[in-house]
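Action item from last week, closing it out:
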Amino acid sequence: MSTPLVVLYAVVRGGIFITLLMLIGSQVALRLIGPTHFGARPQLRNAIQRLTIPAVTILLVMIAAKGGLQVLSFVDPGEPITLDFVIGVLWSNSWGHAWILQLACAIALAFWVRYDSAPDGIQPMVTPVLIFLLAWEQTGMGHAAGRTWRFSLGRLLDGAHIGGLGIWLGTLAVLAVAAFPLLRGDERLADLADVVRSFSFYARLGVVLVILSGTIESLVYAGSITTIAQSTWGKLLLIKLGCMVGVMALGWYNWRVVTPALEGAHATCRERLRRAVRLELLLGLVMLAITTMLVVSPLPGEG
């Protein structure tokens, strides 16, 4: 694959990761807004749901682009692209099967969220199921689907990793974009504190999933701890771990320092929350960018 295609592929895959995590996060955010936020609940729900349509649209475009780039990566210079060639790339292997199913799920989700008219308070399972399938098919287009694993264990671990990131960073991103701006003013400070407190449970759950799945995958791929720093894949992994430690530290700060400050209505509590969330999401973006590079990098011993 040429350098421009590698860069485009990384950008597209990163876009898929980000939108997929935000879709997972939107479902978590809708559920953590409970009856204690009765006054602001309809506005919060509407703001979160409004993110879904553009996120699904971007995801659909990115998935289609990923298929096109996959085809281009197999084309030799001057070779014509025929229908038989495209079918051979996208239909005759497990990567193509996962891509086709993911594209179909994205199309179905795009139609569903566009025409879904369920009233407030009703949460049909169509959207969560389609998002789950999108994440599952994502695991079929990387190292997790390789021969290293048996009985789809790699895909299950990779799915847990994606789910954990979505529950953790995806939900935080959705709250930062859609919920926190609606909870301004002293009269909404208690609601803001309650939302942040509710999120901390999901954040810890997401962190546990990310750490457990990531540790098992990394040790299996590396073979041993000593070989991690001897490959490009291992060096990227160490950088990702450094970013994750930073994000976890900021999450702990939000949980143990910022949330009590919000509950105590301290004068600088909102500014503390704003700074911590921005930095946490920035480090999260770096971590996701490295994750995208890890997926396309040769495993230790392969290159």
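Closing note: The mean pLDDT is 85.
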